[in-house]
Amino acid sequence: MVAARQNGDIMQDTLFTHHAPPRPLAEELRPQTLAEVIGQEHLLMPGGSIGRMIATGRLSSFVLWGPPGVGKTTIARLVADEAGYEFIQLSAVSTGIADLRKVLAQAVRSRESAGKATVLFIDELHRFSRPVQDALLPAVEDGTIVLVGATTENPSFSLVAALLSRAKVYTLDRLSGPELARVIERAEARCARPLPLTSEARATLIGMADGDARYLLGLCEEILALDRDGDLTPKDLVEFLQKRAPLYDRGQEEHFNLLSCLHKSLRGSDPDASLYWAARMLEGGEAPDVIFRRLACAASEDVGMADPQALIQVITAWQAFERIGLPEGRLFMAQAINYVATAPKSNASYLAFDQARTLARATGSVPPPKRILNAPTKLMKELGYHDGYQYDHDHPDAFSGQGFFPDEIAQPEAPVFYRPNERGFERDIRKRLDFWARRKRPPESLQD
Prior knowledge:
Order of helices and strands: HHHHEHEHEHEHHEHHHHHHHHHHHH
CATH architecture of the largest domain: 3-Layer(aba) Sandwich
């Protein structure tokens, strides 16, 4: 009976051994040393920030910030290994304060019993709430742990200031085309056969990965599992594989980054770059209204009175888009983008209003001149309201030259905020203002 049970156990173990699911290729190829890591040389080389820390054998807390699939978790684990630290990994998605306290207690025991420091790696660190982030601070300050965090979001926006002041932030780059090509070569060496791809399809595959090595290795697994003759062409590849969705978070840093790129391209009179960034945002799932709002802002802030039609073109295109929708609506968006980008530029109105606001804040409640106030009652007339007002249409060119600023501000002369430039329609406006300036008379001459 015992022998039979033992034989049964052996058979059962063998059965499970033979049918254990294979590990993902990305896990199989995970680097075992920092020297094997592809990319991030600016941090890992001997003169890099992380390389120097490892050389000294003393680690300080840091945050790895970068897109998915560039090696954040791998680098954190290998840094701890090569520096001789204990390594504990947590995910902010599934960890609460109670779990964190258990890990911190374990780190204390490790330091006191074995004299070994602990690297606490927290993936998706930005997902921790403020109280949980604050709970990390004492352990980081007293050396109980060396905190290594990983985040895909800008730490300046997602981490509390106290934690940021205690941890350096290292930026990881998306992998380049040549670096992704090296990843493919490692996958082929591991599987002992090349990917069935034409050279053009190989380049297409690298483009589909969009800098993400983990995603690329997933694609390689799918291709290697194919049962077909001949090499895949780019067309075959696109039909077979789902292209990686562009990195774009409509509520976070990437949203603001691409908005900034679009606005600066419009301001810089580059229609091609403007179209590109708008297309990037649409492809990433951005709401078209967001793009049109930015166009409207640029049409006023950067084009302004140099071409007053710019704002009209944007609003008209926006309304047409709302009526028609995609895909045809992209035509209206493109037309508005091209109009704003190629229009003459002037920020004179923008600067003028900022200066006016500054003066308004400084002068507070300075009373307006009574001559430009209405006098609907007898008492107001007796108080001098509307007395001396010049009706502009009663004067040549419908211009009286009277002053409209408070008297305290207009002494010795009224301020000038709006200074049109010589570009576009503002050239004509400047001529008008110069003409009116010559026609103006001193305030005392208005009292006819």
